[in-house]
Design a protein that fits this description.
The structure holds two protein chains of two kinds. Chain A is mainly beta. In chain A, about 0% of the residues lie in helices and about 55% in strands. Chain A is globular, with a radius of gyration of 13 Å. Chain B is an all-beta fold. In chain B, strand 4 and strand 5 form a beta hairpin. The chains are: A mainly beta, B mainly beta.
């Protein structure tokens, strides 16, 4: 079983929709979690860190539930430019463990 | 932008040849990483470094070696390339945050094809 798991998708949603991604992790020793965005044939880029209290950045909201060992990312009012693969990441010591990613396509 | 460059950006080579990929950073970060990314597997850690001459293996280190003789450069070597090493290779650094914790930033990647 992989340490960080995600639904691979693809999620195909219309513009303006709200979409939610979930990620589960098996090792409770992780200190921190993150969401990265990766465009086709590009490097992953940090979208946001995830805090236990939840955090919001514009249309993006991230939540961490340590009791249930899952992380979520909510995207509101989705834009065509949100189309990408979203990677869930856990930090264990100095090692970052990546989930396989969830592909999102926002359709006009 | 964390000032990370990778070279070459694309390379085609033949089975059995040695290949060295270079990662260069300009911000003096202590931790550097090499990953490979393949369809269906996501990003997998090959090796990482926690200082000059200090390196350790990752999840998929077989067939790879690394060296870090200067803080700014982290080299990944395939001693004898195989077709299974055809992949996209990403270098990354870990940046410590003022409030504690770390975040990771990536270079643009090297697309390697082994024929």
């Amino acid at each position: 079983r992989k340490e960080v798991e995600q639904d691979p998708g693809p999620f195909n949603v219309p513009e303006g929709a709200t979409v939610a991604f979930n990620c589960t992790y098996s090792n409770s020793a992780s200190q921190s979690f993150f969401w990265y965005r990766q465009d086709c044939r590009k490097e992953p880029k940090l979208l946001m860190s995830v805090y236990s209290s939840g955090n919001e950045d514009g249309r993006f909201t991230a939540q961490l539930n340590r009791a249930s060992q899952y992380i979520s990312l909510l995207i509101r009012d989705s834009k065509l430019s949100d189309s990408a693969t979203y990677l869930c990441v856990g930090l264990y010591g100095q090692n970052f463990v990546f989930g396989p990613g969830t592909r999102l396509s926002v359709l006009p | 932008d964390a000032g990370i460059t990778q070279s070459p950006r694309h390379k085609v080579t033949e089975t059995g040849t040695p290949v060295t990929l270079r990662c260069h950073q300009t911000e003096n970060h202590r931790y550097m990483y090499w990953y490979r990314q393949d369809p269906g597997h996501g990003l997998r850690l090959i090796h990482y470094s926690y200082g000059v001459k200090d390196t350790d293996k990752g999840e998929v280190s077989d067939g790879y070696s690394v060296s870090r003789s200067k803080t700014e450069d982290f080299l990944l070597t395939l001693e004898s390339a195989t077709s299974s090493q055809t992949s996209v290779y990403f270098c990354a650094i870990s940046r410590q945050l003022a409030g504690g914790g770390n975040e990771q930033f990536f270079g643009p990647g090297t697309r390697l094809t082994v024929l």
